[in-house]
Design brief:
Residues 209-330 form the HD domain. Residues 187-378 form the HD-GYP domain. InterPro entries: HD/PDEase_dom (IPR003607), HD_domain (IPR006674), HD_GYP_dom (IPR037522). Residues 1-35 form a coiled coil. The model has no long low-confidence stretch (mean pLDDT 89). A six-stranded antiparallel β-sheet has the order 3-2-1-6-5-4. It has three domains: 1-45; 47-183, Beta-Lactamase; 206-371, Hypothetical protein af1432 (Orthogonal Bundle). It starts with a helix and ends in a 7-residue tail after the last helix. Helix 10 runs antiparallel to helix 11 (287-294). The protein is of the alpha+beta class. The protein has 14 helices and six strands. Bound molecules: fe (ii) ion. The site of fe (ii) ion has 6 residues, from loops. Fe (ii) ion binds at residues 243-244, 272, 296-297, 325.
């Protein structure tokens, strides 16, 4: 009986220990799970247009947040024989102006002692800005070739295998992101070049306005940048470069006519935003660009064409193009009229604020012209 009782007691103890172990494992699992959930942020909540500085800044802070053994770090980007510091966490921000020369290439993740002083050839010139670490993890970032390295500086603790796995997942995500970004920028360049080819076609077709679309796209993208609308730059560039593409559907006898246009001829010219939209829309994914083009001759007061939209009904991007388009048209000569001086064109814009032009955009554009000394004094 006693023997049975003892055996039972031992079994109970064993079971209790196993349960405790299970609880610890469950807690660890929960912790890992929540970390992986956080990692999905790196994929889902990041725009492909984010600057590399911001992306890597985010990535480093995620590493520090998720893995307690990491205290700080930096990201090095390969530029020829040098590596530029593109992001730092914990080290001096002044490093962002520096480059490092590495004495060795790393192909896979490696834990390295005294990485900075041992593997950076020009360490002496950087050491005041580097917060030296006894141990670092060097993680290669690869796209088609080596992009650079993430350096994670460790506290003097053993880094667990599960955490190395997490680091691998995160750096793979980063490498994939860089790859997508590269493909995205190649695609963007292709579209940019295609848009430019069409822009040149309009220039050939209507030589009197040669250079107009190129200048409009420069002014429009600059204005979008100035007002902090980085997210629309791409669309603004494509739409402004192509805004007059609909002119290809208007007979040259009308476009190049030196005499005053008849009412019918004017109506024909006024079709170009709609024709432009029709043409551009044939490209998949260009519906929005088409819309912007369609409305670039609307007026803020609703008296424009083709749809007579009023104020904010007009797409914001179209309103940007309207003001810079008008400025360029006024300051260049056309077959039927001379050009206005820049100062006179500015006065026209001021006069038409809230009538033809969005008042806010008109003000911002005038500010830009003044800052860039396009004019002396208005
Ligand atoms: Fe136009």
């Amino acid at each position: 009986m006693d023997k049975n009782y003892e055996e039972l007691k031992a079994l109970k103890k064993e079971l209790e220990e196993a349960y405790e172990q299970l609880e610890i494992s469950y807690k660890e699992l929960e912790e890992i799970n929540s970390k992986f959930v956080r990692v999905t942020d790196l994929i889902t909540n990041i725009s492909i247009d984010i600057s590399m500085k911001n992306y890597f800044g985010k990535l480093l802070s995620y590493f520090v947040e998720l893995i307690p053994e990491i205290s700080y770090g930096c990201v090095l980007k390969k530029e020829g024989d040098f590596f530029r510091f593109v992001s730092t966490l914990g080290h001096s921000k002044k490093l962002l102006l520096d480059t490092a020369i590495l004495t060795e290439e790393f192909i896979e993740i490696k834990e390295i002692e005294n990485f900075y002083s041992t593997y950076i050839k020009n360490y002496d010139s950087l050491k005041d800005k580097i917060f030296s670490a006894h141990k670092s993890l060097v993680i290669p970032l690869k796209t088609y070739e080596l992009y650079g390295y993430i350096i994670l500086d460790l506290k003097d603790k053993i880094i667990k295998k599960v955490e190395i796995d997490l680091i691998k997942v995160m750096s793979n995500i980063a490498s994939n992101f860089l790859m997508s970004r590269e493909l995205y920028s190649q695609q963007k360049n292709f579209l940019k070049n295609t848009a430019f080819a069409f822009l040149k076609a309009v220039d050939f077709y209507d030589p009197y306005t040669k250079g107009h679309s190129e200048r409009v796209s420069y002014y429009a993208t600059t204005l979008a940048k100035i007002i902090g609308k980085e997210e629309i730059i791409n669309d603004i560039f494509l739409a402004s470069a192509l805004h007059d593409i609909g002119k290809l559907s208007i007979p040259q006898s009308i476009l190049l006519k030196k005499e005053k246009l008849t009412c019918e001829e004017l109506e024909k010219i006024k079709e170009h935003p709609v024709r432009g939209e029709e043409l551009v829309k044939t490209f998949e994914g260009f519906e929005k660009i088409g819309k912007i083009i369609r409305h670039h001759h609307e007026r803020y007061d609703g008296n424009g064409y083709p749809d007579g939209l009023i104020g904010e009904e007009i797409p914001f991007e179209s309103r940007i193009i309207t003001v810079v388009d008008a400025f360029d048209a006024m300051t260049t000569a056309r077959p039927y009229r001379n050009s206005l001086s820049i100062n006179d064109a500015i006065r026209e814009i001021i006069k038409n604020k809230g009538k033809q032009f969005d008042p806010y955009l008109a003000d911002e554009f005038i500010k830009f012209l003044k800052i860039n000394k396009f004019l002396e004094e208005v």
